[in-house]
Amino acid sequence: MFKNLSIKAISLIIMIAAAMPASAQFNLKKAVGAASKAAQAVTLTDEQMAAYVKESVDWMDKNNPVPDENNEYTKRLRRLTEGLKDADGIPLNFKVYDVIDVNAFACPDGSVRVFSSLMDIMSDDELLGIIGHEIGHVTRRHSKNAFKTQLLTGAAKDAVGSTSSKAAALTDSQLGSLGEGLINAKYSQKQENEADDAGYEFLVANGKNPWGMVMAFEKFQKMEGEAGSKSNYVQKMFSSHPETAKRIKRMSERATKDGFERPAAEAAEQK
């Protein structure tokens, strides 16, 4: 069974995470000194972008623990995402990273990665709401634009800028930096609202209850207050308290207007 954790327990998990060995946490192998730099005037083709995204996703999958098909986390995610084949023509694929970080992210190629510790604290509806929101960033091309910026300004910019028609082979350090950019991508409030709407529409189109997104946001808002915003995902999603409340209110009103019934709160269970 999935561990049933209270909101108070979440803050403990987050504080413990800081003291855990690096091998137990999400592995990025950050590139030293990969600070933001001025973007270069480099043109990237869709083919090059696709190659760099695939290389980055493959690297992250290789360097982080992915449970096998018989693992309970994997079976739960497979059950929840059954029938979710594509989003706006982008094929989707899902995997679990069995790590202590509370997080989830989606890549421009439709690769969605959900962390086991996030699954521990979210009900099925809430988890689907988070997945829908992350997919919203993909369908609105936010993640693609953020990844392109990371390519042109981060640790991999010299390698990218030195190629013409073929994607360059990147080092572990460069791939780690790109992975960091994927998972920690920060979006404007406008983009977050767009992802909320796109995620809402994606969930509805696939027969899922959009209230899950609202319920997940409410849980994260409570985490933000009780854990002091120590979760990277909470920081990424909700950098502004007033905007968080507005987003929750807006999505709640939309779900109510559309006639969806709010599910009863339930603890996350492993089935």
Write structural notes for this entry:
With 271 residues, this protein is mainly alpha-helical. The protein has one domain. The protein contains twelve helices and five strands. A three-stranded mixed beta sheet has the order 3-5-4. A two-stranded antiparallel sheet has the order 1-2. Helix 1 packs across helix 10, helix 2 crosses helix 8 and helix 5 crosses helix 9. The longest helix has 18 residues. It starts with 6 loop residues before the first helix and ends in a 14-residue tail after the last helix.
Which percent range fits the helix content?
40-55%
Order of helices and strands: HHHEEEEEHHHHHHHHH
Report how far apart the termini are. Answer: 7 Å
- As a percent range, the share of strand residues is 5-15%
Overall geometry: globular
Family: Belongs to the peptidase M48 family.
Pfam family, one: Peptidase_M48
Cofactor: Zn(2+)
Organism: Paramuribaculum intestinale
Compact summary:
The protein is mainly α. It has twelve helices and five strands. Helix 5 (124-139) crosses helix 9.
Keywords:
271 residues; mainly alpha; 3-stranded mixed sheet; 12 helices; 5 strands; 6% strand; globular; disordered N terminus; disordered C terminus; Peptidase; metalloprotease; signal; Mito/Outer_Membr_Metalloprot; hydrolase
